[in-house]
Design a protein that fits this description.
The protein has 13 helices and twelve strands. By secondary structure, the protein is an alpha/beta fold. The strands form three sheets. An eight-stranded parallel β-barrel has the order 4-5-6-7-8-9-10-11, surrounded by five helices. Strands 1-12 form a two-stranded antiparallel sheet. Strands 2-3 form a two-stranded antiparallel ribbon. Helix 11 links the parallel strand 10 and strand 11. Helix 7 packs across helix 10, helix 11 crosses helix 13 and helix 12 packs across helix 13. The radius of gyration is 19 Å and the shape is globular. The structure holds flavin mononucleotide.
Length: about 350
Amino acid sequence: MTDADRGDIGARKRSHLQLSLNEDVGFRGRSSGFDRLSLVHDAMPELHPEEIDLSAEFLGFELELPLLISSMTGGTDEATELNTRLARAAAQAGCAMAVGSQRAGLESEDVEQSYRIRDVAPDVPLFANLGAVQLNYGYGVEQCLRAVEMIEADALFLHLNSLQESLQPGGDVDFRDLREKIAALCHDLPFPVLLKTTGNGISARTARKLVGLPIAGLEASGAGGTSWARIESMRGPGDEHRTRFADWGESTADSVRAVRSVLPDLPLVASGGVAHGDEVAKALALGADLAGIARPLLREAHRGEGALEESFRRLAEELRISCFYCGRGWVGDLVTEDLCESGNSDPFVE
Ligand SMILES: Cc1cc2nc3c(=O)[nH]c(=O)nc-3n(C[C@H](O)[C@H](O)[C@H](O)COP(=O)(O)O)c2cc1C
């Protein structure tokens, strides 16, 4: 990689961060799908809210909250402070955390530090991150090992971001034969490898392609939250067509349903447009094991550690109330019977 390429990654990361923090980079024409679902009220919950158990298990890790701070950042000075704040909050809340793509860190030792958060979050299940497409651009076992070692991670997310790459000038768009390469990596690496999308969801057809792939889990990051096509379209003058794809993809709720219909037992995170505890409850009721939150927490981290702490307190409280409302004593007891289509009291039918 040349100095110019390195500079490009840094500049790109900075503009992604600035746009995510300061602009409306969300989906506009479609939602995460959680607004179309309501939780079903149990008028006789036979519970005390303080006894409700919000804990979860994911890949053998015990969490106090069924939450993942989804992959976001690293590779710039500003990212160092944001990752540190997020990691401290994850440790305090007892949830899991992922860092953003570590390609910049692999290409330049100078920015490795921006991803390293183990010292502030010694017990947090921590996920490394690389683009799956990089397997077609020279990356393999060595880079995956280095990414995990760099941050003392417990597992690795490989992200699938074909839409974003195709809208980036000079993006890496060769997505051929990745299934086979991912399968080989899963066998060769000594830690769990998971796949994730980046806000455009997973269809039933994609889920079927994952059947038999030895991944340890999946983050179905659906449409309805952060729109990467919108971010790319805002990064300067370019082809008008980029905005046409800003509302593209399967909603988060539809993605979870699609995955669960094909892969009922795969450890699953639902992200994309999750910002409140009742949305976490709906994601779990649809069959996700955890909910993932990215940009809403990034914005709070930017405001300060107090704001971030308050967000986690609010999320936990909303989740607790949702469970109380549904008469469920443990978040893991939420099931599709606890959902109905909004405005319709018939039970939700898969
Ligand atoms: C600033 C920012 C940077 C991101 N960088 C990455 C990344 O490097 N790798 C990745 O897998 N996902 C990345 N994502 C995508 C998120 O993990 C998530 O899938 C997506 O933003 C949807 O969640 P949200 O609606 O809660 O933001 C990033 C998101 C944001 C906001």
